[in-house]
Amino acid sequence: MGRYLLRRLLQLVPVFIGTTLLIYVLVWVMVPGDPFAGKCGERPCPPGFVAMMTEKFHLDQPWYVQYAHYMQNLFQGDFGTTFSGRSINDIIASAYPNTLKLALVALAIEAIIGLTAGVLSGLRRNGFLDNLVLVSTLFLIALPIFVIGFLLQWLLGVQWHIVEPTVSNEMRLSELIMPGFVLGSISMAYIARVARTSISENRRSDYVRTAIAKGLPMRRVVGVHLLRNSLIPVVTLLGTDLGALMGGAIVTEGIFNIKGIGGTVYRSITTKESATVVSIVVILVLVYLLMNLLVDLLYAALDPRIRYE
Amino acid sequence: MSDILVSEQSAAGASGRPAGRLLEVDDLRVEFRTRDGVAKVINGVTYHVDAGETLAVLGESGSGKSVTAQTIMGILDTPPGHVTGGQVRYHGKDMLAMSFEERRRIRGEGIAMIFQDALSALNPVFTVGFQIAEQYRVRRGMSRADAKKRAIEMLDQVKIPNAKGRFNNYPHQFSGGMRQRAMIAMSLALDPEVLIADEPTTALDVTVQAQIMDLLAELQRERQMGMILITHDLGVVADVADRIAVMYAGRIVEEADVYDLYAKPAHPYTLGLLNSIPRLDEKGQELRTIKGLPPNLMNIPPGCPFNPRCPMAQPVCREKVPPLLQIGAGRASACHFAEELVNRD
Questions:
Q1: Lowest mean pLDDT among A284-288, B142-146, B201-205
Q2: Which fold has domain B21-110+194-279+287-294?
Q3: DSSP assignment letter at B301
């Protein structure tokens, strides 16, 4: 297990370098146009500013030198600054906690609602609840997320005043439930469906029959023997989804006025803040890689037949 | 041999085990309702098992022997399976009329079951020890430590070497034979009165088969359990069974003491089965088989269900279903010509 973990962590190094290099080249080298266009309002930038920035970002040097400088700073924990001189570390530090909160709320909603719906419908296939779950999940999967978002915001927030239509800067949990539901809705539907299939397949398995033949109460047969086996695919889905959620949610953040990482990266792209884009994407790559590793480890923890050597 | 059995039985009666009729299946009828039609899988099965005896239920696949066992245990897949008639009495009480909770209490403590394939019958994600100890914890309310101690004792009783060390192993870490031993330990954990063994050695190597059968026979004798041994292996039966019930197309076609059945079968199907055992002294001969296939259970032929395959079939066999009738002390046959069969030389 220890050796496996070490190998996986070492594998992260080339993947990390490869992806960051790709992003860096894409954003700094391959984007057409003058990096200073539009940076100084209506007028062209003064030569002094251009000279200063060119030196600061090593724009007069080949791209691999630029990349080397960037990585050097990165490993010292310095993401650099924007053109206007704002620290990118500060930008990330203010946006990322918001993204994280929203992601965790969405994940919790996905897991709780999706799993419950999936388990209940899987136990009674073709029952009323099963059909309800099938139809409603199909609905969620078919609808684009911005439709669900605006619809709920308008209904619950504007028409019925059940919740605040947008999220305040304090990011209270009660305000985050609706955005979390919207963000997690599609994955929630998939989780419900995977759990349903998994439960109804395992329901007929020999070991469940054995558990019943042992005279265990039904809630133990289902809650321990059936659930534990059926959770394996669901956990995989949840894990990969957490990686995606932590990458920010441009649409959901936009609808509910959440100052998260998705909106930040979107704004950076439109304003050609290349340094910010690269830094955020680098973090997202790292988060995604670690989440994938976590899923693989969880997989082994849930299924003892999988052993990593 | 039979003398020894009798004396052991009476000894058991004195030691607190209720001697006598433990389990009776009475005119049980089960059908499977599928999209393609209704398959009559069990058509009036009657058998019983007493404390301290082993009843072997013999039959081809599809003869209904496993479905009968599943109905007794209450683990019949419903749908498609439906019990349409008959009773399953445990200590004289009809289990089919009991509440779910009442029946659940009998499982494991009163009647336990061993399955054919221990690898799929054991839960892959829990340790073998957990799956045995679980019963002591849930059913007897024991502490974790006590349950573990008892589970290790059980593993020891089924002769698993280093029982303590294997407690924390998962089913896939056991060999086939050891896994079946663990399965036996699990079914016997709550000291059941009746043990149903559904082809317990089919999935095992021949060398291991004998060990497992010996173990089962030994445990059955020690605990004076009533055992229902479901099998299609005549070799296994001869060693351990006291009585044999032969099933065909969801019916019992013959029931007899093991010696009588081997010496003088009273049903042509039994005769066919016995003849199909390869013999060492007739080397080079073609293997003898029973011609034809078992009937389609959705469309059982009129009269005796065996008549299309029976070498002795007469016109009456195509018209009248032969009832299972007593033809002597402790034996019965469902053949119109049972007397002739037994009395021939």
A1: B201-205
A2: Rossmann fold (3.40.50)
A3: P
Which of B272, B249, B316 lies closest to B41, judged by CA? Answer: B249
Please state, in angstroms and rounded to a whole number, the distance separating the CA atoms of residues A23 and A17. Answer: 10
pLDDT tens for residues A163-172? 888 888 877 8
Calculate ∠ Cα A219-A222-A224, nearest 5°.
95
Size of interface A-B (CB pairs under 8 A): 75
Instruction: Report strand pairing: B54-58 vs B243-248.
Output: parallel
Q: What is the mean pLDDT of residues A1-22?
A: 85
Cα pseudo-dihedral B122, B158, B228, B125, rounded to 10:
0
CB A216 within 8 A of CB B138: yes
Q: For residue A141, which phi and psi values (nearest 5 degrees)?
A: -70, -35
Query: Which domains does chain A show, CATH number per domain?
Result: 14-85 (no CATH), 96-272 (1.10.3720.10)
Cβ atoms A273, A27 nearer than 8 A: no
CB contact under 8 A, B75 and A212: yes
Question: What SS3 state is found at B337?
Answer: coil
Domain with CATH 3.40.50.300 in chain B: 21-110+194-279+287-294
The end-to-end CA distance of chain A, in Å, is: 6
| Dist. CA A239–CA A294, nearest whole Å | 7
Q: Rounded to an integer, what distance in angstroms lies between the CA atom of residue B53 and that of residue B43?
A: 25
Among A37-41, A261-265, B161-165, where is mean pLDDT lowest? A37-41
- Chain A contacts of B125, Cβ < 8 Å? 228-229, 302-305
Residue in chain A lying closest to B123 (CA): A207
**How much is the pLDDT for A32?**
66
Complex-level ipTM beyond the 0.90 threshold: no
pTM of the model: 0.81
Between positions 197 and 256 of A, the ones with CB within 8 A of B are 204-207, 209-218, 220, 225, 228-229
